[in-house]
Design goal:
The protein is 59% helix and 6% strand. The chain has 508 residues and is an alpha/beta fold. Helix 5 packs antiparallel against helix 7, helix 5 (152-180) runs antiparallel to helix 9 and helix 7 runs antiparallel to helix 8.
């Protein structure tokens, strides 16, 4: 909403309310930052999330107070350029619908599906920003109507940036959601992955086209003439198609980084919308999300030893049902084991390291793994958990799953802290992890994941791998660990297999 008012008496009650709004915004910003700092550790993450949520509630309340105050000032009449129309019924309806659509999925979504929920919610944010840009274009008759409270430059520039980035984020996040939810047809995914270079070239054309339209609209606004609404629609479509073409060719192994990147883009688009609307809260919140998301994206890319451009323009992996591995990745012989043998190996070990992956999440085996670890600890075995930065489908996915099963935070070890332990470990049990344990990343220069830091599982004296089959991981490549001399495979659903191991441990 573009509302233009003349300056009011600095000592009027309405101006005092403006001071209150500013104070509430500052309080909200402080809670945003303090809450975000709590997300740096599992023990403080829940509290940090609540603190940030309270901050957002205060920001929303302050914005509503601001809207009410501007309406009251306009109603005072005298000399104001424009009287805003505030439809409180629409505002209330939007809040109710948002709550009704947001809370149920957050409560009912299982932790295994949390990555796709994050992608979907992130996309909604980007789509909202794109719609705000569209509405500003319509309300100002193609950026041609401005008053002294809303100069042309910030509104135009902010709206156009928000339109491009928000549209890319929205459509890209929908594709990320459909990939993670596995509702995108595999044939479509493989087609885009196989023709990645073609669509990368198309993205360059779309980017140039989007920028050209944005420049045209900016020039039109500078000249004081409005443009047809089809120009902004064309801009949103071009950016949206670019969002589709950016994410569709990216392989599944890169999805954790992609989700983080899209999250950062949504934050930046929200900040741009804040500039257009002259809303300080939106600018600050958007920049916090954009900055933190950018930092996380960079950390995730480093964890894979890849640059962000390499991920966006040179991805690997076509999905969970990629080409199946042979009898063993390095030509060795795969040795199957039983729950009884696995239980005996672990029961008489000094140290066992559990390596969780997405297979653990799909099978919802975290509680069973915790029970197995408790039985081992009761027998004097030290149990630790090795967490790779990109295990699962989003940053921290494995940490959250294990914490849900009451695994002690101190037992969860990051890759750099645990890798030196494998050579002193009797048994490493890999549950649903694949690419993050693949020795080819360290030993095979021809491997697509060569150079990616991995968990040194192959250095353990004995390795037990729990998998449904010999199919490859999300990167779609073979894992020579499966055929190594010290590795045995326990085939089957992870939760069922761990349950069988538990029964054997109880019998020992």
């Amino acid at each position: 909403m573009t509302t233009v008012l003349l300056a009011a008496d600095l000592h009027s009650p309405n101006q005092n309310i403006s001071y209150v709004v500013t104070a509430l915004y500052i309080l909200a910003f402080g809670l945003f930052i303090y809450g975000l700092s709590g997300l740096t550790g599992p023990k403080t993450a829940v509290r940090g999330n609540w603190i940030a949520a309270v901050g957002m509630g205060i920001a929303v309340a302050a914005t509503l107070l601001y809207v009410w105050n501007e309406g009251a000032r306009a109603d005072e009449g005298a000399g104001r350029v424009e009287v805003p129309t505030i439809n409180w019924i629409l505002i209330a309806a939007g809040l109710i619908i948002g709550v009704a659509l947001g809370i149920p999925p957050a409560l009912k979504t299982k932790m295994t599906a949390m990555p796709q929920l994050v992608a979907l919610f992130n996309g909604v944010g980007g789509g909202t920003v794109a719609l705000i840009a569209w509405s500003e274009f319509i309300e100002t008759s193609g950026f041609s109507e401005f008053g002294d409270k809303q100069p042309a430059s910030p509104l135009v520039v902010g709206s156009l940036i928000a339109a491009i980035i928000g549209s890319i984020s929205f459509w890209g996040s929908l594709i990320a959601f459909s990939k993670l939810q596995e509702i995108l047809p595999k044939g479509v995914e493989k087609f885009f992955v196989g023709n990645a270079k073609l669509f990368q070239a198309a993205n360059i054309v779309l980017l140039i086209g989007s920028i050209a339209i944005a420049v045209f609209l900016g020039v039109q606004a500078t000249d004081g003439g409005g443009a047809s609404v089809w120009w902004i629609v064309g801009l949103l479509i071009a950016a949206g198609v670019m969002g589709l073409f950016v994410v569709l060719p990216i392989g599944g192994a890169d999805m954790p980084v992609v989700i983080s990147l899209l999250n950062a883009m949504t934050g930046l688009s929200a900040a741009a919308a804040g500039i257009a609307l002259d809303n300080t809260a939106l600018i600050v919140a958007g920049m916090i999300v954009g900055a933190s998301g950018s930092i996380l994206t960079n950390l995730m890319a480093k964890a894979m030893n890849r640059s962000i451009p390499a991920i966006v323009f040179g991805s690997f992996g076509g999905g969970a049902d990629g080409a199946a591995a042979g009898p063993a990745g390095d030509g060795g012989t795969v040795k199957a084991t039983s729950a009884a043998d696995a239980a005996i190996q672990m029961a008489y070990a000094n140290q066992v390291i559990v390596v969780p992956g997405y297979g653990l999440a799909v099978a919802q085996a975290q509680h069973a793994v915790k029970e197995m670890a408790s039985l081992l600890e009761g027998k004097g075995v030290e149990v630790k958990y090795a967490i790779h930065p990109v295990a699962g489908r989003m940053p921290g996915h494995m940490n959250v799953l294990l914490a849900e099963a009451d695994v002690e935070y101190d037992a969860m070890k990051e890759m750099d802290d645990i890798n030196g332990e494998f050579s002193r470990t009797d048994v490493a049990i890999v549950i649903g992890a694949n690419d993050v344990t693949n020795p080819a990343a360290r030993n095979d220069p021809s491997s697509p994941i060569h150079g990616m830091p991995i968990l040194n599982v192959d250095e353990a004296r004995s390795v037990i791998v729990l998998k449904r089959s010999m199919s490859s991981g999300y990167a779609g490549i073979d894992n020579p660990l499966f055929g190594a001399s010290g590795t045995s495979m326990l085939f089957g659903d992870a939760k069922k297999s761990v349950g069988e191991v538990i029964e054997e441990l109880k019998a020992l």
